[in-house]
Design brief:
Helices cover 24% and strands 13% of the residues. The strands form 7 sheets. Strands 1, 2, 3, 4, 19, 20 and 21 form a 7-stranded antiparallel β-sheet that branches. The chain has a 4-stranded mixed β-sheet with strand order 10-11-12-13. A two-stranded parallel sheet has the order 5-8. A hairpin with a 5-residue loop joins strand 14 and strand 15.
Amino acid sequence: MKILLSRFRKSDSKGAALIIVLAFVVLLTGLVLAYFSRTTTDRQLAKSSFDDTASDLLARSALDITVSDLKQEIINNPTVSTANVQPARYGDASIPNLIRRSFSGDPTGRTSSISTTAASANGRSISLARWNSHYLVPRLNPSSTATDSTPVLSFTAPDWVLLTGQGPAPAPAPNSVIGRYAFAVYDEGGLLDMTLAGYPAWTQSGGGGNPNVTPTPWFTNVGRKGILAFADLTALPAAPSTTLPQTQINSIVGWRNYATTQQTGSFFPASAPTFKISDRNGQDAWGSSLLDFGDPPYPTPCSLFPFTSVDTSTFSSRTDQAIMTRQQLLKLRSSLGFSQNSLQYMGTFSRERNQSARDWNSLNNRIPDRFDVGYLGMVKPNPNNTAGGRGKGKGHQSGGAFKGRGHYKGDAGTIRDTFGLAWVPADSTVTDPHNVKYWGHWLYVGTPPLPNGNPHIPVLRGGRNDFFQLLDYCTGSQANANADDNNPVSILGLGASLIDQYDSGGTLGTDDVDTVGGTGGVHITGTHVTIIAYGSSGAQFVLGWENVGGLNGEAKAAGDPTDTATPTPKNPYNWITDTGLAPPAGVKKTPPSAFGLTPIVLNHGFSTVGDLGYGLKTESGFKRIDFHTWPQVAGSLDAALLDFFTYNPVDHNYPRVGIANLNTKNVPVVAAVLQNALKKDVDVSPTPNPYPTVSSTEATNAAQAIVNATTAQPALNRAEIARLTSVAASQISTAGFAAGEETEKVPEAIARSLSEIGQTRTWNLLVDVIAQTGRYKPNAANLTASNFIVEGEKRYWLHIALGRDLNGGNVDVLGAQLEEVTE
């Protein structure tokens, strides 16, 4: 019995031990399996992370190679010509935005014959729709409302560039390949930069009111153009036979400029924003953010308003919102629901230095900054002697605050440095109004001041030049590029006219009209016609011109400048003579009526460089500045003004945005800039009906003529806006306009629209790169796509601005933005 029980006890112990051992085996097996599972997962994660990093490095390297090719293209062609002012195009040249793509036989000599649409060994390929996910290529089916980026049939997918450890090779051994990439380069500069482009449907028709819309009736602001915000986006095609609706444009602007257009509440995407006809505060706030840069003189370097960031204003506790990337633009389109077809005309990146072209005749590296036309607003009689004096930054006519252009007054030092002009008060000892010294006037002393008052305009120098130096260079066949101009009379007369074009007509009794002189400082010699004396004696002089008359002006009728009892016009043309003596001993200046002319005088601040076209060469038979004929001949060499002057005060140290390539292949882009431009300047209330603007048909036809012209011969600089105006002038109707200057200036609506926002010397590009790491199958017999195993993939859109003019022998990179594409 004991033996039997003992056997049972031994059996139980053995069984328990076996169970324990088995349990340990199970636990150990679980641990091992868990270890291997975790190791496998970690390895997969590590492999995935490695592949992601490797493909990222490969994509960035591919971008470096592609951008280096573009930079080398600039370096290889330091002398800019029509053949190289734009990057060389290859591959699908019929597609407006496409500059180049990788394809077998391309000029790089690196690309294989393997299409990116061919499937790899593990089924990876890049479809045509994926290549066009940015919508920069026209869609195959523009009628479709479904989300579909399939491009037109003329677009061919890029081919792969195969990479080895030694770099790209078109036909390497399969076992040496470590990855591949493909690229396409697009002209983003030929698009409308949506960080700024487009305006809402405010339809306020009159000036005045409280507040006064900045600085004039809203339609007039839009019509004067001068900034990309006034591009009319209704010119952009949407669905076939339709254009982008204004309601959707309102939504774009309302979202982007929420604070500066004074929106309230949340209206996306359920309802549209509000742009009421009577909303003068909203119009004023947005106009101020776009048009008012503060008071000159501006600091150098000047960082004011390059529009590279949103306005800092807040409204309803919200700010404006920037469209930072193209993918954000695509998301905004999806939210607002506007047509996919419009995207091929919209960009999000543009840069340009606000500087003239570097290769103008005889500049010899003395590149001047473009002269801000807003400086003309400072040149008012009897200026303050200190920078903080009365009138600077104030509405000096009424003493109150103001909004708008041309309502400030410069100090004497700044006017001398910027214009070379010194104010000479009326001489109380001179009693004969035939003598120029009887009148308060300007004396041209040059910058730096001329020795002994010699009557010449100095040669150009680098950086800042005075106003008359630039006028002389731009309108005198670059005569003073190498030597002073010893016969300045014509240039000084033109400058005097432009001062009178820019300032307001003035009213009797204000410091804009009257000058101080005579016994006890009595205002006895008031005139709003600009007088500029020159020469060692200060007795030689030129006059500007004003058309205003009656109590508000001086130029229409004769008047005795000594007459204080009856406030008749006081016109220096009727008095001042070349000798300071009464006729016949002295000769008066000839007014425009002697030539059968009644010139247009704007009497308001300029909105664009094209407004210089209203300038009059008063000493040359009141010949007008010409921005509408080409080629320009001796006596009409005025087009250079378009390249040397600017409205935006940002200097070349701060690349600015909102610039469009004059050589764009997109007709709707040019049409949007031209559409609704004023044919005739309007500064009255109520505004005329119908409004004298460029119609949709006129804008489209003119834009087509311009694109045809730049395709045949690319524009080299802004001066060629005159050429583009000449080829498109016939498309702008002059019906109903008075013969003479008014009809002549109608086609110059093209020049006024393009002059500030057009450029040719910067390549604003979008580089689309897709890179894949991987390898060919072991013992792969050839390089066919089906033998390649994809291990990692990365896609980038690089936005980059390359200056076409070399800067110190190097390519000038004005800005870059790298956008990782998530698909």
